[in-house]
Structure formats: structure tokens, C-alpha cells
Design brief:
Length: 688
């Protein structure tokens, strides 16, 4: 738990909160119209996830709110007292200080106050009490001490330590010069500074891009307790499910707001589109009937009145327009030649970088058809193991033996570096394509969202996501029965990840992959390898199975607390197929209650259960669920009204609406907590 003091919260704007209004905002980039006439109200303590396809303008919108760029039209109004904190996707570099000093540098003014206190203390030490300047110096010292205390100065180092620990920095690194950290760690430093400063409007553009699973878990917990507003752009659906209360969808140059996390948004969006299609179908049928009548009887004098009536009705009908279809990647891996049962064998692998031991006496067998996920903290050796499997890493000892008829394809994190900057997208793909595939190159590129003149862009002007997609397309052209994929989902949007996931699940060959996307791992993996401390621990099953096994043995690399956090995240995500099976009573400190043995007769179990108590407990749970459902509907109705800019033209309306909404949210939390207690009581009754 981080330190949140009432005084400091008030100082940072907790009382007034963050209030931002976008009024008819439009923005163009080169020839592309990103959005037009956007109106958006962001209230106090809003927890929002901003989603949309790559290139839709999410990062541009965040920069606009952060005052990094100006809109072409419209205004961005920010309430007085709002403090903004913006984390870009990349490009932040710090130099000249040690890690801890750089992290604390966001409170330079506080440390100047502290230095002045020390100077005054030294001055007063040698000054007689009756000195003419003594009274003024003493008053100034007291004022500085009070301000320093109220603004949390005494807690800053402790808070900084918690944040750096949570983001994966080791204690020995605290004095290390920041310029010695790589780009990904530089972004962690920038995130640490931002979280320590605690702005009351936090703008995070892909904050999980450079975080491993443990750091993501920590950041989820931090944001869940963050007392102010934040907007998160992320392509990690698990992360969004755990941290946001509403999804804002930027699509077709417009914004649409959905209550709940990402999984809830997907269901609502699909239901909305289905309802719209059905409404349009009924409208088209009605219009066709009217037009048929008019066409048939237009020139009949006896039907003139009815014809005019139908013409007027046709003029009044407001035609339903279906939203533009979303573009996604559509592809399928070429089905590969069948390999032998054993695809790869590692025996006695030893790998050192100088004095650093990455692997010591590592043995591993990869069998045909497996989908193996490599997990572990950053720096544990996941990418090194991928290079060993791809036979691109020199070994101090041991052997990597491929099996019979194995054709590997390796996708590295820096795969985009292999793109020739002198080539266009089409030329780059053609350079690795066999002759019989050349006529299909445009079709393949279209599947990877390169449409029209996009194929003639030079690879140097492509975004990170575009370069990643092009690199994946190049790998597709060589049929392989062993795919070695190191972070293949980086820079892919949510829809593209889903299609890649579907293609990999249908792939009949073998896949070994690294990913920090928990949903992707959970849906694809058939085995999990935990990498660290010079070895690889194997866990059959998907990521959820891995968490359960680690939870029962927290003596390994991961702490039971970390596993418990992941289990809570699993329960929060309706997208997880086994979410309902994760017990609400799960705790890192207590073991899972063993199930009733299979051989125990059903009567023996039922005899111990009191039917009346169970029925009463079930009724209480159902009543609590009904209350929650009713309250959620009430909150959704309130948010729908509040989304209308006209509603807030009256100051009285705005203040009362925000108060009512906050009270309803607090009540919902209480009701949800009560529902969890009742559900736990019911489980215990059924298990007793």
C-alpha cells in the first residue's frame, strides 16, 4: 500500500479533481482526417481505457489533452487545479543522475525547501536567541518544515522505493547512472517519475509495452488504488479489464463510450452492431414496401392521396447507416510438412555473458505440436533461450539438436531491423517470396492492413506496428513447422492479436513464443516454461494452470503474492474461459481446500450439507446480484446523460450529477464486496 495522505491529496487537486472538456475537436495528420467534431467530457476520478485500431489517432488524442499538440479546430478546456502527467509510447531518455536521484527529481522544489531548512538550522545553531534575525529565521524554518511535512516530503524516498521495486528495478541499481539503462528501462524510469508525482489526470500511452508480467501485475494494483483520474491506451485486454471502468472507442473519427472493461465492451459493441443491423433490415423492408406501392400506383388517380401519404413518410424516414466495417488481419499460416516427434533437444546448455550466468546445465525437449510459452522477469533469459533454439547464440557448453524434418522460422524482437530501408513494402515482401507467390503479394499485404498506396511506402516511414506486421508477413512466405516467436504481438492492435491468436491455434506445427500479454498466453499455450535463476521450470497446461501450480508452491521464483494478484486479475476478466472456476476464497497465504475424493459416494457429501442453509445462502447471493445489476443500470443511465455536453451547461446540474454518480459508484463497491462475502459463505457451505 502506497502512502496517500489527505493533506497531500488535497494539495494535488484531490478536492477539485480532474475535469477536461473537448469541444468539437478536429485533427488532420498529413492527408488523413483522424477525427472531427469530437466532444468528450472527462470527469473527476474517471478510469478510462482508450481503444481503437492502429493509426486511428489514440496517441494524437492523448497528446492533445496533454497540451503537447493543438487541435486544428475546437478547444480543449481544462479545469483550474488539474495537473497533467503524460507518458508517451517511447522516446523518453534521462541522463546525468543516478536512478533514485532521477526518480526523485520530480520534487525539486521540495528538496530545495529541505536544503533551505538545513541552511537555516546551521544558521540558528550559532545564533543567540536575542539576535535581531533569530525570530524571522525561526518562523521561516517552521513554515518550511510544516510545508515539507504536509506535502509528503518525509515519505518521498519510501514511495520512490516502492515504485522502483514494483517496476522491477533492483536495489543495487538505485545509484546506477540512468544513461546506462536501455530504452525499455528508460521508459520504466519515466513511468516511475510520473507515478511518484501523482498528477490528478494521468495519461498513459501503452504503459505495459516495456513491462514484464510481474511489473504489469504491480502496475494493475497501483492503478486500482490510484485516487485520481487516468486514461490508458493499451492493447492488453487483461490489463484493461483489471484497471478501467469505461472503454472509450475511437473509431470512424468518432468516440463511443461503453461501461465496464474491455471484455464487456466487446460484448456491448457486438450487441449494438447486431441491433443496428436488425433495425436497418426492418427499415429497408418497410422502405421497399412504401417504394413498391408508390411505383405501382403513382399514376392512378384513385390512389393519388395514398401515394402522396407514402411519399411524405419516405421523406421523413431517417435512414440508418451501419458503421464502417473494422479492418483486421485475415491470414492463415501455410500448413507445414510434418516433423518428427522430437522437434528440438537441448542437453547440458551452459550460457554466460561474462560473469553473468544465464543458463547452467539446461536440458529441454520440445515435441511436435506443442505451443510453449516462455515466461519470467525481464533479463531472466527468455530472448536468449529463443536465440539458442534458433541456433543463433554461441554456447559455452552443451548442444542444441533439431529433430527430423524440422524447418524453423524465427521472429526476433528486433526483426524489423532486417528490413531494407531502401525498399518499399511491396519490394520488401517480394525479396523473400518464391516465384509462385508473387501474384498473391498484394492480397497478402492487404490481409496485413497495407491497402492501396500503402504498399509503395518506404519501410523507413512505417510505424512500429506496420514494421512488425510486415516482418510477420515475410515469415509467412516460408513454410515452417517450428515457429520461434519473440514478442510477436508488440505493436499489434487488439483485433490483429485476435486473428494472429486464431491462426496460431490452427497451426499444426510447433510454436515456442515469448509474450507479456497474459490473455494471449492463456489462450495459446499448452505448456509454460518459467525462466530464471539459470534454469527453466516446466508446467503443463496454459497460463491459468501455471498460476494454480505456482500458487501451491510459492517457494520458486514467483512469490505467492504475485500469483494471487494474477488470480484476482483472472477472476476480473470475463474473457477467461475458466474465470468462473477460480475460487473467490483464493489467497496466497492459505492452501486450496482439497476437493471431495472421487471415490467418496455422493450421499456422503450431501449428507453433510444443510439444504435449508444452502437455500438461504443462495437466495442472499441472488438478491445481492439483483441489487448490483440494478445499481449498474442506474450508473450506466447516469453516465449516458452525463455524456451529453448540453447536460453540463448548468453548473448546478454538473455538481449534483458528479456527486450522485460518485455516491452510486461507492455504493456499487460496497454491494460488490458484500456479494463476494455471501458467495464465499455459500462456497464454504457447499464444501463443508
Amino acid at each position: 500500500m502506497l502512502f496517500w495522505t489527505k493533506t497531500r491529496a488535497a494539495h494535488l487537486g484531490y478536492i477539485w479533481g480532474a475535469m477536461i472538456q473537448l469541444n468539437s475537436v478536429s485533427k488532420r495528420y498529413l492527408e488523413q482526417n483522424l477525427f472531427e467534431s469530437l466532444t468528450w467530457f472527462i470527469g473527476r476520478r474517471d478510469r478510462l481505457g482508450l481503444v481503437g485500431n492502429n493509426g486511428s489517432g489514440k496517441s494524437t488524442l492523448l497528446k492533445m489533452i496533454a497540451r503537447e499538440i493543438e487541435p486544428d479546430q475546437g478547444t480543449v478546456d481544462i479545469t483550474r487545479g488539474t495537473t497533467l502527467g503524460y507518458l508517451p509510447q517511447e522516446g523518453v531518455v534521462a541522463t546525468g543522475k543516478g536512478l533514485m536521484e532521477e526518480t526523485l527529481s520530480v520534487f525539486e522544489e521540495l528538496f530545495q525547501m529541505e536544503a533551505e531548512q538545513h541552511a537555516l538550522a546551521e544558521k540558528l545553531k550559532d545564533m543567540p536567541p536575542d539576535h535581531p534575525e533569530a525570530k524571522a529565521a525561526l518562523e521561516r524554518y517552521g513554515e518550511l518544515q510544516t510545508r515539507f511535512h504536509l506535502e509528503g516530503g518525509f515519505r518521498l524516498e519510501a514511495e520512490a522505493a516502492q515504485i522502483l521495486d514494483g517496476l522491477g528495478f533492483r536495489r543495487p541499481d538505485w545509484e546506477k547512472p540512468v544513461e546506462t539503462f536501455s530504452g525499455g528501462w528508460q521508459m520504466r524510469i519515466a513511468l516511475a517519475k510520473l507515478l511518484l508525482k501523482k498528477p490528478n489526470m494521468l495519461l498513459l500511452d501503452e504503459p505495459t509495452n516495456h513491462l514484464d508480467l510481474e511489473a504489469r501485475n504491480w502496475l494493475e494494483g497501483y492503478l486500482q488504488e490510484y485516487p485520481f483520474s487516468y486514461i490508458v491506451v493499451s492493447h492488453d485486454r487483461f490489463f484493461l479489464d483489471a484497471t478501467v471502468e469505461r472503454i472509450v472507442d475511437l473509431f470512424g473519427r468518432r468516440l463511443e463510450v461503453y461501461s465496464g472493461g474491455y471484455s464487456s465492451y466487446i460484448r456491448q459493441r457486438e450487441a449494438k452492431v447486431d441491433a443496428l443491423k436488425e433495425a436497418k433490415r426492418r427499415q429497408d423492408e418497410h422502405v421497399e414496401k412504401l417504394e413498391t406501392f408508390v411505383s405501382k400506383f403513382r399514376y392512378k388517380a384513385t390512389k393519388a392521396k395514398q401515394v402522396q401519404s407514402r411519399l411524405k413518410e419516405l421523406d421523413k424516414i431517417e435512414r440508418i447507416d451501419l458503421p464502417e466495417a473494422r479492418r483486421t488481419i485475415h491470414f492463415q499460416f501455410p500448413q507445414p510438412p510434418r516433423s518428427g516427434r522430437r522437434v528440438l533437444e537441448l542437453e547440458g546448455i551452459r550460457k554466460y555473458y561474462g560473469p553473468l550466468c544465464v543458463f547452467e546445465n539446461l536440458d529441454l525437449t520440445v515435441e511436435q505440436g506443442e505451443k510453449i510459452a516462455l515466461v519470467g522477469p525481464n533479463g531472466a533469459g527468455k530472448s536468449t533461450l529463443m536465440r539458442i533454439l534458433a541456433r543463433r547464440e554461441e554456447l559455452q557448453h552443451g548442444e542444441c539438436r533439431p529433430g527430423y524434418n524440422v524447418f524453423p522460422a524465427y521472429f526476433a524482437q528486433d526483426q524489423e531491423q532486417e528490413l531494407d530501408p531502401r525498399m518499399t513494402v511491396l519490394e520488401s515482401l517480394g525479396s523473400v517470396a518464391p516465384m509462385d507467390m508473387v501474384p498473391q503479394l498484394r492480397t497478402l499485404l492487404g490481409s496485413f492492413l497495407f491497402h492501396g498506396d500503402d504498399v509503395f511506402k518506404k519501410t523507413t516511414v512505417l510505424s512500429g506496428g506496420e514494421r512488425n506486421r510486415l516482418s510477420l508477413a515475410r515469415i509467412l512466405l516460408t513454410p515452417a513447422n517450428l515457429l520461434l516467436l519473440d514478442e510477436p504481438t508488440n505493436h499489434l492492435d487488439m483485433e490483429s492479436k485476435e486473428v494472429l491468436l486464431s491462426a496460431l491455434r490452427d497451426f499444426t506445427g510447433t510454436v515456442v513464443f515469448v509474450s507479456h500479454d497474459r490473455y494471449f498466453i492463456d489462450q495459446l499455450a499448452t505448456r509454460v516454461l518459467l525462466i530464471g535463476q539459470g534454469r527453466a521450470e516446466s508446467y503443463p497446461g496454459n497460463y491459468e494452470d501455471f498460476l494454480w501450480k505456482k500458487r501451491q508452491d510459492d517457494s520458486g521464483f514467483m512469490s505467492g503474492v504475485k500469483v494471487a494478484e494474477d488470480l484476482r486479475a483472472l477472476r476480473m476478466s470475463p474473457s477467461s474461459p475458466a474465470a468462473a472456476e477460480v475460487p473467490r476464497a483464493a489467497s496466497a497465504a492459505e492452501p486450496v481446500r482439497p476437493a471431495v475424493p472421487a471415490e467418496e459416494p455422493a450421499k456422503a457429501k450431501s449428507a453433510r450439507v444443510n439444504p435449508q442453509k444452502v437455500k438461504l445462502a443462495q437466495e442472499k447471493v441472488q438478491a445481492a446480484e439483483a441489487e448490483i445489476e440494478k445499481l449498474e443500470k442506474r450508473i450506466a443511465d447516469m453516465e449516458k446523460k452525463m455524456a451529453d455536453p448540453e447536460y453540463f451547461k448548468s453548473p448546478g446540474n454538473a455538481q449534483k450529477s458528479m456527486q450522485d454518480w460518485e455516491k452510486a459508484k461507492e455504493l456499487l463497491q460496497q454491494k460488490t464486496a458484500r456479494w463476494e462475502e455471501l458467495s464465499l459463505e455459500l462456497e464454504q457451505l457447499l464444501e463443508s
